[in-house]
Design goal:
About 50% of the residues lie in helices and about 20% in strands. With about 250 residues, it is α+β, with helices and mostly antiparallel strands. The relative contact order is 0.15.
Length: about 250
């Protein structure tokens, strides 16, 4: 198992104690940008700026003006999101459909914040905002998993077939959806959507155990994250740490 298992277990258990409606940010937004957005939103809310007609018109024009800087676009989007007004939500909803590339992620977060604020007020029900680096879809979060081969040798054809069959079966059984399953020479990459309540550790380890009934070719050491996909260099480093001098030519 990997070092993140306890983290994900606490993550899963934390939602069992929360009553309310969950909203998952679907877009893949870098965590650094998310933190920047939340800090900006907090500053605006602390300022308690009332959305007057003049300010509403100003922010709307700001978004439609091609000469507006990225920073001013961000401020306009955040100000509209924090206003708790339906007219501001409509502006954000329309803007997201054709947002400028440099603020697409920011606009998506603004729209989510605006929706949650309005629903909290109109429905009088607790709204829970969930955002991760890999995003999600509907009521499921997106995760990335990297599983190495037990030995540094290419997977055989039958092993690839077993991996494809067992992962498809067990993830579907757990209510998950596979978006990508890549079987490389000595590792497997998996991107999937999982319900918040999913016991990720148990699910992944059960799949590995079932695959290994046919030859013990998958390592029990794996990486799972909902922050970001590792780069090719990062994967190479993980592989090197696993196999080291035990690599063989093939």
């Amino acid at each position: 198992m990997n070092d993140n298992s306890d983290v994900f277990e606490r993550f899963r258990e934390s939602f069992d104690k929360i009553n309310g409606r969950f909203h998952i940010l679907e877009q893949r937004v870098p965590m650094e940008l998310q933190m920047e957005y939340f800090k900006c939103s907090e500053r605006i809310r602390k300022g308690k700026m009332k959305m007057t007609d003049d300010k509403y018109e100003f922010y709307t024009r700001t978004l439609s003006d091609e000469k507006t800087t990225v920073e001013h676009k961000k401020m306009a989007l955040s100000a509209l999101a924090s206003s708790n007004e339906i007219r501001a939500y409509r502006v954000l909803e329309n803007y997201v459909r054709h947002a400028d590339p440099d603020v697409t992620d920011w606009a998506s977060m603004a729209l989510m914040e605006s929706r949650i604020s309005l629903e909290s007020e109109l429905l009088e029900e607790k709204q829970v905002y969930i955002s991760t680096g890999l995003g999600g879809k509907g009521e499921r979060l997106r995760f990335y998993t990297l599983i190495l081969a037990t030995e540094y040798r290419p997977f055989q054809d039958y092993e690839r077939q077993v991996i494809e069959r067992e992962f498809a079966f067990y993830l579907s059984k757990a209510g998950c959806e596979i978006e990508r399953l890549s079987i490389e020479d000595v590792y497997v990459e998996l991107i999937f959507l999982a319900p918040i309540s999913t016991d990720l550790k148990a699910m992944v380890e059960n799949v590995i155990l079932e695959c290994n009934q046919y030859g013990n070719f998958l390592s029990g050491i794996y990486t799972i994250t909902n922050v970001k996909e590792p780069s090719a260099d990062e994967i190479a480093k993980i592989i090197n740490e696993k196999y080291g001098n035990h690599k063989t030519s093939h």
